[in-house]
Amino acid sequence: MNGIAIDPAAAVEAAMPRKRRFLLLSLAILAADQWTKWLIELRLPEPSSTEIIPGLFHLSHVRNRGVAFGIFNSLSPEISRWGLSLLALGALALVAHLFRGAPAQATRLLTALALVLGGAVGNLLDRLVQGSVTDFLGVYIGSYRWPDFNLADSAICVGLGLLLLDSFRSRS
Q1: Using one digit for the tens of pLDDT, what is the confidence trace for 22-42?
Q2: Quick check: 20 and 30 in contact, CB under 8 A?
Q3: Which position among 33, 126, 148, 153 bears the catalytic label?
Q4: Is pTM beyond 0.90 here?
Q5: Cβ contacts of residue 29 below 8 Å, gap of 6+?
Q6: Is 153 part of the annotated catalytic residue set?
Q7: What's the Cα-to-Cα distance from 38 to each of 13, 72, 124, 141, rounded to whole Å?
Q8: What count of Cα atoms within 13 Å lies in the side-chain half-sphere of residue 155?
C-alpha cells in the first residue's frame, strides 16, 4: 500500500451527498406517479378509456388489485392488499440494501435502483391506501394490446432494464 489510511466510515459519509441526489430522483418519480394517478382519478370515471392517438394510445382509469399486467388480480381483496404489500416491502428492503452498498460512482446502478425505488413506493402506497393500484396508460396496435400501466410501472421497468444492462458491464 502507499501508506494512506482509509477510514471506511468517512468514505461512506463522503459518498452520501452524491447518493442523496439519486434519492431525489426516487422522490420525483413518486411525486409524478401519485400526481398523475390523482389527476386520472379526478378527471376520468372508473372504468373508462379515452383514445388519444387512434390505433396506438389511450388514457384509461382502471384498478389493478394484482401486480404487473394484472397477475394475481383474482386473489381475494385482503390477500391482494396485505400479501402483495408484504412482498413489495421485502423487495423494497432488498433495493434499499443494494442502494446502500452501491459505490457512489456507480451512476447507472444508482439510477436504476432509484427508479425502482420510486416506482415501487408509488404502487405500494396505492395498494396500502386504496387496496389496488390505478393504471391509466394504454398502448395497443390494432388488436394487440399491452395491459394498462402507470408511471410507477414505467419507472420500475426502466430501472430493471438498467439493472440488467449494469449486470452485463465489465467487472474489472
Answers
A1: 999 999 999 999 999 999 999
A2: no
A3: 153
A4: no
A5: 114, 115, 117, 118, 119, 122, 151, 152, 155
A6: yes
A7: 37, 24, 15, 27
A8: 25
